[in-house]
Amino acid sequence: MRRSTLALLVLLLSVAALPQFVSAQDWAKTRLDASPRHREYVTLKHDGRSVQAFVVYPEVNRKTPVIVLIHEIFGLSDWAKEMADELAAAGYIVIAPDLLSGTGPGGGGTDSYSGMDAITKAVSGLDPNTVNADLDAAADYGERLPASNGTVVSVGFCWGGGKSFAFATHRKDLAAAFVFYGPPPSEFSTITAPVYGFYAGNDARIGATVPATVTGMKAAGKKYEHVTYDGAGHGFMRAGEDPSNTNPANKTARDKAFGRLTSLLKALPGGSASVARPAAGASTPQMAKSAVSCHSPGSSAAIM
Question: Which of 90, 32, 190, 40 is nearest to 177 (CA)?
Fold first, then answer.
């Protein structure tokens, strides 16, 4: 077989596999596309590295805290962006960095990979120090935004939950770290922020780490509060929204956990934002149309 023919065959097989990967979260993309909130992509630069980040702004009438959202092991997926939008709807600026930025084919990020397995392997291989530096860049950017009140928290899911906990050991001005079914760091002594855990009852891989985390955080004199949702499985925040979910406990856990998260956020300094509500009779299609016209592809910025 000629080399050019073989290369073409590999390309076609990769493209053929891509639609199945992309369509798995079409429901999340549909919800995001209908959002009236302003969203944009920015380029965060540090140490010669460029990181693409998805940013969503709330519709509020005052300065608000900033959430650094840390994606799952599945990269900056449609669901991660949709969750960012949901948190913005609750009244917070949300910055979700694509931690795979520059690692993919052609120097791309999550979207440049051929499928879920490739993304999972790439995320698993990320250097922890680089991840913290990327998260620092996102937090620094958020602190400087004119609409920010300077309060920054981290919220992470799955792999990102573990990174949210690890970020708390690294960043001293973090106001809180929220850990959704992620593993703990190896030591707790440098943590200065309260840590809040959200765990699934049917997730022994992560659940088995909780008793030692409780003991370790208490011994280190750190604040750690956690809740375990019976019957739910790992990844219940995403699964609980997925229309194909077959476990009712996932949806119950998702709703309760989101309520707990937003309640804790409101307790932060300046955390109770006044969210602007749509006018009576405003239709979703009109709002979606407005969002599309506002969020043009050229909306991005390079941040040093």
Answer: 190
User: 220-269 pLDDT, tens per residue?
Assistant: 999 999 999 999 999 999 999 999 999 999 999 999 999 999 999 999 87
User: Token pair 């250097």 is at which residue?
Assistant: 127
Rg (CA), the chain: 19
Question: H or E element: which one contains 103?
Answer: none
Question: What's the pTM?
Answer: 0.84
Task: Please enumerate, as own/partner, the contacts of 241-246 that have beta carbons within 8 Å and a separation of 24 or more.
Answer: 241/27, 241/28, 241/79, 241/82, 242/27, 243/27
DSSP state of 154: E
Q: Report the b/e string of 88-106 with b at 16+ CB within 10 A.
A: bbbbbbbbbbbbbbebbee
Mind giving me the DSSP string for 61-98? SS-EEEEEEE--TT-S-HHHHHHHHHHHHTT-EEEEE-
Domain range annotation of the chain: 36-276
- Identify the residue whose tokens are 């049917």: 202
Looking at domain 36-276, does it have CATH number 3.30.450.80? no
